[in-house]
Amino acid sequence: QLLAMAVALSVGANAQGGGIYVNYDSTVSLTDSSISRNEAVSGTGAAVGGGMYFSQSVSANANASLTINGSTISGNSTSAGSTSHGSGAGIYAYDGDTTYSLTIDILNSTISGNTGASSGSYVWGGGLYFYGTGVLNMSHTTISANTVTASSAAYGGGIYVSSTTTANIKNAIIADNTVSMVNTPTLTIAIASTRR
User: Fold this and answer.
1) How far apart are CA 158 and CA 167, in angstroms?
2) Chain centre distance of CA 76
3) What are residue 57's DSSP bridge partners?
């Protein structure tokens, strides 16, 4: 059983993987585990993967995989600075290699209560962010009460999957996730009165 609680803190650079950081060519399996209350915080750079960061970069030499079974990813957060993003508060996965792919299998698990925020840029995927040419398989899993808050763009309170990713989701519950924008312009109406 794995219980991860930690903080990735960066003042001027990127903060990646508050709980777990996994590099390319890796095979990772989480069973009956909890990744909770981790943070990725950056002053000016990106803050991604509050709970877990998994990158299959262009330097990959083999396929990579992540299997999550009977586990909970909850209460993790990202907080990015004014110039970058805070995506993937629960899980941030990136597959940048077109030859060797990343496959993520999530079964019988819960991803809930994760919060992604950026004070000056965008946030995508409060519960799960998956970008690239990889494959996401999800079944009998609940994605709930995750939140993204940003000033320029907020997408996918529960899940964000890029257009190049293959996603197979069945028998899942995706509910009560939220996207919100800060610094939304307000409309002011001035009414002139005339004395008679």
Assistant:
1) 14
2) 9
3) none
pLDDT digit string (tens) for 15-49? Answer: 889 889 998 899 999 999 999 999 998 877 888 99
Query: Which DSSP symbol is given to 145?
Result: S
pTM: 0.86
**Integer Cα distance of 27 and 63 in angstroms:** 8
* N-terminal to C-terminal alpha carbon distance within the chain: 80
**Residue 41 and residue 10: Cα distance in Å, rounded?**
6
Q: What is the amino acid identity at position 74? A: S
Q: What residues contact residue 187 under an 8 Å CB cut-off, 6+ apart?
A: none
Q: Percent helix, strand and coil across the chain, each rounded to 5?
A: 0, 50, 50
Give yes or no for a contact between 121 and 78, defined as CB atoms under 8 angstroms apart.
Answer: no
